[in-house]
Each structure stands twice: as structure tokens, then as C-alpha cells.
Amino acid sequence: MFVKELAHDALANIRQAHSSLSERLSRYDPVLLVVAAVGGTVLYANVVRIYRRSEEPLSKRLVAYVFSKVRQLPMVKARIEKEISSAKVEIMHSIHKDDSDRIFIAEIPASGLSNEEVVALADKYNDYGKFAVEDGRVSGAVYTDRHQSHIDLLTKIYSKYAYSNPLHPDVFPGARKMEAETIRMVLNLYHGPDGSSGSLTTGGTESIIMACLAYRNRAHKLGIESPVIVAATTAHAAFDKAAQLCGMRLRHVPVDKNNRVDLRAMERAIDSEVCMLVGSAPNFPSGTIDPIPEISQLGLKYKVPVHVDACLGGFLIPFMNEAGFLLPTFDFRNQGVTSISCDTHKYACTPKGSSIVMYRSKELLHHQYFCVPEWSGGIYATPTITGSRAGANSAAAWATLLSFGRNEYVRRCKEIVSHTRKLVEKMKELPFIEVFGSSDVSVVAFRGKGINIYAVSDRMNKRGWNLNTLQNPDAIHICLTINQAHEEVVDAFIADLRLVSQEVADNADKGNKDSTAALYGMAAQIPDKSLVDELICEFLDACYASPPPKGH
Ligand SMILES: *Cc1c(COP(=O)(O)O)cnc(C)c1O
Question: Residue span of the signal peptide, if any (predicted)?
Fold first, then answer.
């Protein structure tokens, strides 16, 4: 009864307010009212549009805006330009430092070189790299030992499929079949149910872009105008790229102390515009696996698709149970998991240029397909972002899976994961180093205890170790491949890390003035990230530039 009375009162109040409002409005010219209403709506829509352009907190956007204005002041601008031009010289030097010839071919030779000459040049260029990949000195990057017999196989396959293109399945039925078989082999590894399907792409980034595109298109069909991706801050940057390319918003949720996504924060982030949830298995920064079964449950509860990013660990996690390591279920056996990305060009050891994106159903995959039915060049349709595809890449991926075989992947998984765990145990004994996140598969991330970890990274680099830099918080990681899965490599790494971290601890400034440390320190203090963008443009430009003369 009470509720009813309350409702009655409320209605009466509204009615009263409405009539007094009408009375007041009747004093105005109706044209003015219409203009004001339309103007107000347009203004409101614009404010909303600008607000929704990004998922960044308003305060952060405001500070960045103010800073970008300060940067326009002539004095500040001159100072920044001076800094950037000196950084530019530094960047050019570092990109080209291994180029011992400083010749640069900028014109196609009028008459072609002989095969011997071309190979000699390629050999010369091949000698530029200085890191000992085969000795396990490089984190990630090359995921296989480059066995001569496998290289020989790939070379034979390449010689047959170099000019094939699965875009034309009628001309290259063999290359098409290889793609189909590769996708199916990986789908079965992930317990793809009846009706599941997928595509072969050029890499993890393309796989992720395709999944985001599919969910965006699905959301549009459901009437969601501006779809949102929900992912942990530790999800791969490819999701930021996908969001930008597909005109979506990426809503980041925090992680817990083990670097696993905070499930409650993820649940709170879900609203009617969310078109997909993301879990990483594992994430790139610390190699930590998000709680996939729980994310899958969230997906089912709110009827939102769930994408599992298994790009990195794609060819480790399916073998972990068999190799003797327990893992929660991460694949399509979770009913809420609707798609998975798995890189074959990482731990499946295929040459770079292959990855698989998988969907629970063909209907989901169809949202990814692209078709122009009325193109003057004929009905045009493609399954992924590319038009013509390198059939040789698909053939090489197919050949690698067949020639390695399941047992070899299980063996490698056992070697890599067990050495990762050994490395973690040994690292825990180091006084100035702290393991960061949960090292669930093959990555070990670590931070400094009272020392600057970036200085450690620089000094490890001088000792021949190429590691990965992380940020928010400051940390570095080593991603173990089969090249690191040896007692000697783990011991050598720990010995160097012990030495270098002690060295940095003995330093008065604890390494804060070392180059990478200084760079990240400076970047962290500047709220306007467009400055970082500018330096990065210089870096990428330097990669395309002709080398500076010797001595520069
Ligand atoms: C490597 C990686 C990707 C992106 O893959 P690319 O092949 O480099 O495009 C995505 N997610 C994770 C977790 C990765 O490690």
C-alpha cells in the first residue's frame, strides 16, 4: 500500500511540475523554443561524442590537453624541438649502428645482378645482427632452434609454393587445402565444437583485428552504435590497434597483484554497449593466464562474446597437461568462449606470417567476411584483411605442423615450461630482483628492489642479452623459447643478472641516470603522450632511412 501511495504522490508532483513548466514556457516564442531545443540537443550530442571518443579518464584527458597547449608556447616549443632533433641523431645512430657497409641501394639496377651477387649481398646483410639467438640470448622473437633439416624442408616447400595465392582457390587448390587443414588441426587442438571454423591470418595482430571486427559488425547488427571492447590493461596492444582501426572503444580494467584481470572490475565494466570480453592465455607482459573459465561465465551471464588471446602461448597451453603441468580450461570447452587467436608463428615454430583465428560457430566467422557484390572487377570477397595471400606462408605452416608432430610439441612444451620454473626459483634468490606477476607458462617478468630495473636491462644488453621492456609498473621480462630451455642458459642468465643488479645497487643513483631508465623516467613525467608519439615517428622513420655516413 505504502508503495502505491508513494507512486501516486510522485506522479502528482510530476504533473504539477509539468503544468507549471508549460505555463512558464508559454511566455516564449515557440520558434525560439524549437531553436533552443534543437541547439541544446546538438550541443549535448557533440559533448557526448567528444566524451565518448576515448575511454581515458576525463582528468587525464584534460591534463594532456592543457599540456599540449603549453607545448605551443614559443619558448617551450623551441626547447622541445631542440631536444627532439638531438634525440633524432641518437635514434638514427642506434638503428644503423650494425650496418658496417653504409652502402644503400636506392635504384633498381639497370641490368640485374647475377644470382651469386644477390646471395653474396644477402649474406653480408645477414651478418649484421649481433645477438646470439641460438645461444638463448634473445627473449622471444625467434621461437625455434633453426635446425638445418627443418630449414631444408621449408626451402623445398617454398620452392613449390612461392607463387601460390589462396585468394584463387581454383588456380591453387593445393594451397587452399593446406590452409583449411592447418585451421582444422588447430581448431581440434582447442576442442572446437561442431560448426566451429576459422581463418589463417598473417599474424596475431591480424587475428585479433579480425575477431574485434567480427564482434563490431555483430554489435552494429544488434543496434549498438559505438561498441566497446573490455580487456585487462595487460591485454596485447593489438586490441588498441583493432579498436582504432574498427572505430571501437577499448575499456581497460585493472589487474590484481598477480597480474590477472580483476573479475569484479570486469563485471562492473559491462554495459549495454560492450560487444566483447577479452582474456589472455597468457598475457604478453608477465606471461600470466587470466581466469578464462570465470570470464567465460561472465560472458554467458551477460550474453557477451568472449575472445581468448592465446597468440603467445597458443602452442604451449594445449600441451601443458600432457607435459605434466596443470592448467584451468582455456579453450572452447568453456561454453562462453566464442573465439580464440593462436599464433602458429610463435611456439608452433612456423616461419613468421601465420596465425589462426577461430570461432565457435560459422555465424560468428561470417561477421568477419568481407564482400563487395557489385564491384566492376567482379564479385569480390575475402575472409580476412588481406587480398592476395602468400600461399607459401600457409604451406610452410602446414609443413611445420606435420613435420614436428604432436609429441615434439609436447616435448618442447615440457622443456620450455620446466626451465621457466627453474629460472623463477633461481631468480627468487637474488637480493635486488623481484619476480613480477604469475609466471604461468614461458615468460618471467621481474622488477627491481631498490634499483632501477631499466638500468639492469641496459647492462644485460651490453652483456649480450636482449630482453623486453615493460611499463606501468616498471619491469622487464624474458620470454623463454626452446633456445633458453637449457640448464647452461638459465645459469648464465642468473649469473649475469646477479652481477648486473649488484652493480646497479652499488651505483649512487641506483641506475636512474642510465639511458633507458632516463628515457622512461622522462616519459612518465610528461602527461602529453604526443611527445612520445613524435619520438616514435622518428624511430620508425629511421628504420626506413638510408644510413648516415660512417662515423655518425
Ligand atoms: C605476440 C602477441 C600478439 C600479437 O601477435 P603478432 O604476431 O606479433 O602480431 C598478441 N597477443 C599476445 C599475447 C602476444 O604475445
Answer: none
